[in-house]
Amino acid sequence: MLDKFLEYLQFEKRYSPHTITSYKKDLEDFSHFYLKTESSENISNADKKVIRNFIVELSENGISKRSINRKLSSLRSFYLFLLRIGEITVSPTESISSLKFYPEKQIPMSKEEMQELNDHVFEAMHDVLEKCIMEVLYQTGMRKAELCGLIFENVNINEKELKVIGKGNKERFIPISEDLTDLLKDYLKIRSPQHEYQSYFFVNKKGKKLTEKFVYVVVNKYLSLITSKQKRSPHILRHSFATHVLDNGAEISKVKKILGHSSLASTQVYTNANIEQLKKVFNQAHPRASKKEEL
Q1: Which residues are catalytic?
Q2: 220: pLDDT confidence band, cut at 50, 70 and 90?
Q3: How much is the pLDDT for 295?
Q4: Which of 28, 39, 179, 201 yields a CA-CA distance of 20 to 30 A from 103?
Q5: 62 backbone dihedrals φ, ψ, rounded to 5°
Q6: What angle do CA 60, 236, 130 make, to 5 degrees?
Q7: Residues 6 or more apart from 253 whose CB is under 8 A from it?
Q8: Is-contact 234 137, C-beta < 8 A?
Q9: What integer is the mean pLDDT of 13-25?
Q10: Other beta carbons less than 10 A from residue 69's beta carbon
Q11: Strand partners, 163
Q12: Which spans in 44-158 are helix H?
């Protein structure tokens, strides 16, 4: 039944391979727990008690509340699928709520820190691929999975534009600057993919597709040179991109489109836009505000 669910995600929901892999891992974790505690592999028969016991074990093993909620979300989707095809009549997750938690505040890199990276660290960098990774993430707000999966034919050097396949296989186009275009041209001079990885734009020195772990290590290494902040991940570069372009006056609706968010609320929370900047924009734009200044 798990295979049917994964096929449903792939062909009907059109989820990305990365998302499907996450669902599969979550459900396999639950399957192992179910086999251990119930001596059965048929998780279709699971009840609420087993789901709750699974959550308790995850918590006792030090799994974060965020990760537990993600696994619970995967289970909800699986049992909703079983309901849809008539395999079960009641979902065991029906009355189980997600765990409440207060997410750790994500502090983006400052403009000064990113300028230091550009002025000093990059000057001493000789690895074009690693510099590309840093600059593409920061200048486009791309997710690390999207960078790893960037297709060669979707990089339009002449038009200075990238086509990115995001969550749910949704396509979006991201403009790139002149300096990033030049950097990508430099990378193309050294790019040497193995035959089976030719479709990917970025490949490592062995000619293979980049892994998300490799991208994380690269970002962490270079951000460690310019900041003492604890969070030094690709996600922070995405956060920094959004915060900096908003602070410089970019329209939030356009930033939403570039980030690939489905709702404006996601962009507002994610970027943590400076409230003083928003007040300034409002006061300049609203007709009543301008009338006050004339009095």
Answers
A1: 143, 167, 235, 238, 261, 270
A2: very high
A3: 35
A4: 28
A5: 80, 15
A6: 115
A7: 264
A8: yes
A9: 89
A10: 16
A11: 173
A12: 48-60, 65-84, 111-116, 128-140, 144-148
